[in-house]
């Protein structure tokens, strides 16, 4: 389970970083979302991965650490707010700058220049 | 009542922001201005009372919901954090009053957002555990994102987009760092972490080191340390100057977090991880000072120049963190207060100069003369003397103090030449800026008479911020005593841990 879990986090982060480096707002937003999912999973695992343990302090001797769950919850809420903000900002940026590049510059790609020829 | 004082610098701005969003204030600008100013002043009074209280009675621990330290969330008010809280609230009053002179009408929600920003900054200074540092960072960041867009244009959107994306990546890195540290140490309370770091063995040491260094990346991003400072000049120069003046405190939050984490948690008691970030901090700080000075030389307008001055000041502060001794920390605090106030004043001054010069704005090119050359010129020269560190103003005292603390350390060989040459470069760059702003006029008969005088409130705020500099010199004795005892308190780690773990009852 640890291997699967760790690979999930790893794949999400690498996809996220790849999308971030695209430097266009839509992929960047997607990349940020993926990274924040990965971070949430990672935080959750900070309390150790266990099976068949009660989630909160109960009468049993075995219980899972409740603190990472509280942390993840907070991080998810904050992550949602931030994603909502960056989406709106990206839309506004597209409207204001006439391009979805994060630098606001329209870079003519190879295909565009071919079409012009 | 007195035991709840610690929570007031956080609760009052929150209350203020909510009041300002409610109908009677939401509709009328006039009422909003009055309410906002009053609440800002009340916040400042509460912060000042807290400062005095902590100064007299030692570290004040406030357990939220009466859950005591390692498990509950605590607010820790020591001399260092209350000093910074008071500074923030003071700057908040200045910015809000300056905004009332007309800048707040150019966009929506200026006043509530400023209060939210103050809430975030105060919270980050006061909180006693790292996860809440993250939460308050997010609070102040989202307020700053929106403030950056205040009265914005296209340039503004671009800068904001870069700033927001960078900070979101930073937040993710912050959480990963926190996750690693929690996984290893099993706690996020700063005092508790400081105790447990020393007990680590085996592979856990390396994990904790990785977590700690990831945090360094985040704090370097917030504080604008060398490789991660590139967002700052653009962002600060494209923000409205009144907003940029408030942002002057935001880089200091990163510096404060570094100071706290690398002195208390990974400080001298951290066993194998003792002073683990010191060498990184030192090298990056020196490089930041150099790059900041180059940026100052290259700046095309006054706002960008001031933004690069902020980068230089961050470099200086971080170099002092890397020294890790009491006198260096005391000098750091003095320099921090001085540099925050003077860079805020310079941003506001850039606003006035830019408005009065018409089309050329605050660009450093010959243009129309300013309408009030003597007033603005006098303010500008005082600000420049302060920021460069010429006698007799506070910059000079700070500079002498910094040079004196570094004198006997082995790093003086590197620090002295870099710091002194940088100061000289700053002096040259700022003299040149002043010359082109005030003396070089386009054409010969451009004695402009059609300009408007600055709003008296704006002048009062700028003069007030600048007046802090001579005050820091005149009351240098008691102030430096305070800084030294604050630094002693920070470095007395055992005492701090005891206060947090036993306090808050």
TrEMBL record, chain A:
Membrane topology reported for the UniProt record: Multi-pass membrane protein
Protein location: Cell membrane
Transmembrane segments: 6-21, 28-51, 71-91
A Pfam cross-reference name: Oxidored_q2
InterPro entries: CPA3_antiporter_subunitC, NUOK/Mnh_C1-like
Gene3D superfamilies on file: 1.10.287.3510
Main localisation: membrane
Keyword Cell membrane in record: yes
Cellular component terms per the entry's GO annotation: plasma membrane
Record's keyword terms, sorted: Cell membrane, Membrane, Transmembrane, Transmembrane helix
Hydrolase found in the keyword field: no
Family: Belongs to the CPA3 antiporters (TC 2.A.63) subunit C family.
Listed NCBIfam families: PRK09094.1
Protein name, as recorded: Na+/H+ antiporter subunit C
Organism per entry: Pseudoalteromonas espejiana
Automatic annotation (TrEMBL), chain B:
Keywords: Cell membrane, Membrane, Transmembrane, Transmembrane helix
Record-level GO BP terms: ATP synthesis coupled electron transport
Example of a GO MF term: NADH dehydrogenase (ubiquinone) activity
Domain of life: Bacteria
Topology in the lipid bilayer: Multi-pass membrane protein
InterPro entries, alphabetized: CPA3_Na-H_Antiporter_D, NADH_UbQ_OxRdtase, ND/Mrp_TM
UniProt main location, coarse: membrane
Xref: NCBIfam families: PRK12666.1
Record-given protein name: Monovalent cation/H+ antiporter subunit D
């Amino acid at each position: 389970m640890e291997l699967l879990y760790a690979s999930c986090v790893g794949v999400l982060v690498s996809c996220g970083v790849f999308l971030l480096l695209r430097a266009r707002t839509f992929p960047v937003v997607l990349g940020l979302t993926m990274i924040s999912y990965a971070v949430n999973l990672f935080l959750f695992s900070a309390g150790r991965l266990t099976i068949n343990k009660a989630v909160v302090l109960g009468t049993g001797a075995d219980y899972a650490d409740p603190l990472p769950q509280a942390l993840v919850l907070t991080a998810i809420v904050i992550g949602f707010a931030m994603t909502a903000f960056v989406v709106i900002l990206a839309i506004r940026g597209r409207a204001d700058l006439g391009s979805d590049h994060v630098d606001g510059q329209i870079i003519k790609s190879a295909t565009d220049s071919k079409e012009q020829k | 009542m007195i035991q709840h004082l610690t929570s007031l610098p956080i609760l009052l701005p929150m209350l203020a922001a909510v009041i300002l969003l409610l109908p009677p204030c939401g509709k009328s600008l006039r009422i909003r201005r009055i309410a906002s100013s009053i609440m800002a002043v009340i916040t400042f009074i509460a912060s000042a009372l807290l400062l005095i209280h902590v100064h007299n009675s030692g570290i004040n621990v406030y357990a939220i919901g009466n859950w005591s330290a390692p498990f509950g969330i605590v607010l820790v008010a020591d001399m260092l954090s209350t000093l910074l809280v008071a500074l923030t609230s003071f700057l908040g009053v200045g910015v809000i009053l300056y905004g009332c002179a007309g800048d707040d009408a150019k966009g929506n929600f200026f006043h509530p957002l400023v209060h939210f920003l103050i809430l975030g900054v105060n919270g980050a200074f006061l909180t006693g555990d790292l996860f809440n540092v993250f939460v308050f960072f997010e609070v102040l960041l989202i307020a700053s994102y929106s403030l950056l867009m205040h009265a914005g244009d296209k340039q503004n959107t671009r800068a904001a987009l870069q700033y927001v994306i960078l900070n979101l990546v930073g937040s993710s890195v912050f959480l990963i760092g926190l996750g690693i540290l929690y996984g290893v140490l099993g706690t996020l309370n700063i005092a508790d972490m400081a105790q447990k770091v020393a007990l680590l063995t085996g592979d856990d040491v390396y994990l904790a080191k990785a977590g700690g260094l990831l945090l360094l990346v985040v704090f370097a991003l917030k504080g604008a340390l060398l490789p991660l400072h590139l967002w700052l000049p653009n962002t600060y120069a494209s923000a409205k100057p009144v907003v940029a003046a408030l942002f002057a405190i935001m880089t200091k939050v990163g510096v404060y977090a570094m100071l706290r984490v690398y002195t208390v948690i990974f400080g001298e008691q951290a066993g194998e991880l003792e002073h683990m970030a010191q060498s990184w901090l030192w090298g990056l700080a020196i490089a930041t000072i150099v790059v900041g000075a180059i940026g100052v030389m290259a700046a095309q307008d006054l706002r960008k120049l001031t933004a690069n001055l902020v980068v230089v000041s961050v470099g200086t502060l971080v170099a002092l963190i890397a020294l890790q001794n009491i006198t260096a920390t005391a000098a750091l605090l003095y320099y921090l207060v001085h540099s925050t106030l003077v860079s805020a004043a310079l941003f506001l001054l850039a606003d006035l100069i830019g408005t009065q010069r018409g089309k050329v704005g605050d660009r450093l090119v010959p243009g129309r003369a300013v309408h009030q050359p003597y007033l603005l010129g006098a303010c500008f020269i005082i600000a420049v003397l302060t920021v460069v560190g010429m006698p007799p103003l506070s910059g000079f005292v700070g500079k002498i103090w910094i040079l004196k603390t570094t004198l006997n350390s082995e790093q003086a060989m590197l620090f002295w030449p870099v710091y002194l040459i940088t100061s000289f470069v700053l002096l040259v760059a700022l003299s040149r800026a002043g010359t082109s702003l005030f003396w070089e006029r386009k054409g010969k008969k451009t004695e402009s008479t059609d300009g408007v005088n600055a709003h008296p409130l704006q002048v009062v705020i700028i003069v007030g911020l600048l007046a802090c500099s001579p005050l820091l010199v005149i009351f240098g004795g008691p102030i430096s005593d305070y800084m030294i005892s604050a630094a002693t308190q920070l470095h007395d780690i055992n005492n701090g841990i005891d206060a947090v773990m036993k306090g808050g009852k």
